[in-house]
Inverse folding.
Protein backbone atom coordinates (compact mmCIF):
# COMPACT_ATOMS: atom_id res chain seq x y z
CA UNK A 1 0.00 0.00 0.00
CA UNK A 2 2.86 2.36 0.82
CA UNK A 3 4.48 1.74 -2.59
CA UNK A 4 1.16 2.42 -4.30
CA UNK A 5 0.82 5.79 -2.52
CA UNK A 6 4.37 6.78 -3.45
CA UNK A 7 3.76 5.79 -7.07
CA UNK A 8 0.51 7.78 -7.09
CA UNK A 9 2.22 10.90 -5.74
CA UNK A 10 4.99 10.61 -8.34
CA UNK A 11 2.47 10.12 -11.16
CA UNK A 12 0.42 13.14 -10.06
CA UNK A 13 3.56 15.25 -9.81
CA UNK A 14 4.54 14.32 -13.36
CA UNK A 15 1.07 15.09 -14.71
CA UNK A 16 0.95 18.48 -12.99
CA UNK A 17 4.46 19.30 -14.19
CA UNK A 18 3.58 18.35 -17.76
CA UNK A 19 0.41 20.46 -17.69
CA UNK A 20 2.34 23.47 -16.37
CA UNK A 21 4.96 23.11 -19.09
CA UNK A 22 2.37 22.85 -21.84
CA UNK A 23 0.43 25.91 -20.68
CA UNK A 24 3.61 27.98 -20.26
CA UNK A 25 4.90 27.23 -23.75
CA UNK A 26 2.54 29.53 -25.67
CA UNK A 27 4.26 31.10 -28.64
CA UNK A 28 5.03 34.80 -28.74
CA UNK A 29 3.46 36.93 -31.46
CA UNK A 30 4.61 39.94 -33.46
CA UNK A 31 2.27 42.95 -33.40
CA UNK A 32 2.64 45.68 -36.00
CA UNK A 33 -0.26 48.04 -35.43
CA UNK A 34 -1.47 51.53 -34.51
CA UNK A 35 -2.25 52.75 -31.00
CA UNK A 36 -5.83 53.92 -30.46
CA UNK A 37 -5.18 55.13 -26.91
CA UNK A 38 -2.35 54.80 -24.43
CA UNK A 39 -2.34 55.57 -20.73
CA UNK A 40 0.39 55.34 -18.11
CA UNK A 41 -0.83 54.48 -14.62
CA UNK A 42 0.54 53.23 -11.32
CA UNK A 43 -0.26 49.94 -9.64
CA UNK A 44 -0.97 49.61 -5.92
CA UNK A 45 2.79 49.41 -5.23
CA UNK A 46 3.54 52.67 -7.05
CA UNK A 47 5.10 51.02 -10.12
CA UNK A 48 4.25 52.43 -13.53
CA UNK A 49 2.51 50.34 -16.17
CA UNK A 50 1.13 51.18 -19.59
CA UNK A 51 -2.22 50.19 -21.07
CA UNK A 52 -2.39 50.43 -24.85
CA UNK A 53 -5.66 49.91 -26.72
CA UNK A 54 -5.44 48.67 -30.32
CA UNK A 55 -7.94 47.53 -32.94
CA UNK A 56 -7.72 43.93 -34.10
CA UNK A 57 -9.67 42.22 -36.85
CA UNK A 58 -11.32 38.95 -35.85
CA UNK A 59 -13.31 36.31 -37.66
CA UNK A 60 -16.21 34.38 -36.14
CA UNK A 61 -18.10 31.88 -38.29
CA UNK A 62 -17.04 33.72 -41.43
CA UNK A 63 -18.07 37.14 -40.09
CA UNK A 64 -15.21 39.65 -39.91
CA UNK A 65 -15.32 42.34 -37.24
CA UNK A 66 -13.01 44.73 -35.39
CA UNK A 67 -12.60 44.75 -31.64
CA UNK A 68 -10.52 46.63 -29.08
CA UNK A 69 -7.67 44.66 -27.54
CA UNK A 70 -5.62 45.67 -24.51
CA UNK A 71 -1.82 45.55 -24.71
CA UNK A 72 -0.12 45.84 -21.31
CA UNK A 73 3.44 46.95 -20.55
CA UNK A 74 5.16 46.18 -17.26
CA UNK A 75 8.68 46.53 -15.91
CA UNK A 76 11.34 47.55 -18.41
CA UNK A 77 8.89 47.91 -21.32
CA UNK A 78 7.09 50.84 -19.67
CA UNK A 79 9.88 53.33 -20.42
CA UNK A 80 9.69 52.62 -24.15
CA UNK A 81 5.87 52.75 -24.01
CA UNK A 82 6.07 56.26 -22.54
CA UNK A 83 7.62 57.48 -25.82
CA UNK A 84 4.45 56.63 -27.76
CA UNK A 85 1.21 58.58 -28.02
CA UNK A 86 -2.26 58.07 -29.48
CA UNK A 87 -2.14 57.32 -33.23
CA UNK A 88 1.50 56.17 -33.29
CA UNK A 89 2.46 52.93 -35.02
CA UNK A 90 4.46 50.41 -33.04
CA UNK A 91 5.95 46.98 -33.47
CA UNK A 92 6.42 44.63 -30.52
CA UNK A 93 6.85 41.02 -29.54
CA UNK A 94 3.97 40.10 -27.24
CA UNK A 95 2.69 37.15 -25.28
CA UNK A 96 -0.98 36.31 -25.56
CA UNK A 97 -3.10 36.04 -22.42
CA UNK A 98 -6.71 35.70 -21.45
CA UNK A 99 -8.13 37.89 -18.68
CA UNK A 100 -11.76 37.52 -17.60
CA UNK A 101 -12.54 35.70 -20.83
CA UNK A 102 -11.03 38.35 -23.11
CA UNK A 103 -7.86 38.12 -25.16
CA UNK A 104 -5.08 40.59 -24.32
CA UNK A 105 -1.35 40.92 -24.85
CA UNK A 106 1.68 41.65 -22.65
CA UNK A 107 4.64 43.31 -24.35
CA UNK A 108 7.80 41.23 -24.14
CA UNK A 109 9.93 43.63 -26.16
CA UNK A 110 9.44 46.62 -28.45
CA UNK A 111 11.08 46.48 -31.86
CA UNK A 112 12.53 49.74 -33.17
Amino acid sequence: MKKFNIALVIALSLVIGLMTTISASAADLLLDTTINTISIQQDKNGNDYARIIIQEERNLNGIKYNTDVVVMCFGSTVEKAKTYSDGDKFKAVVSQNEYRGRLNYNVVSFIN
Notes: Strands lie at 29-42, 48-60, 63-73, 89-99, 102-111. Confidence is low (pLDDT under 50) at residues 20-24.
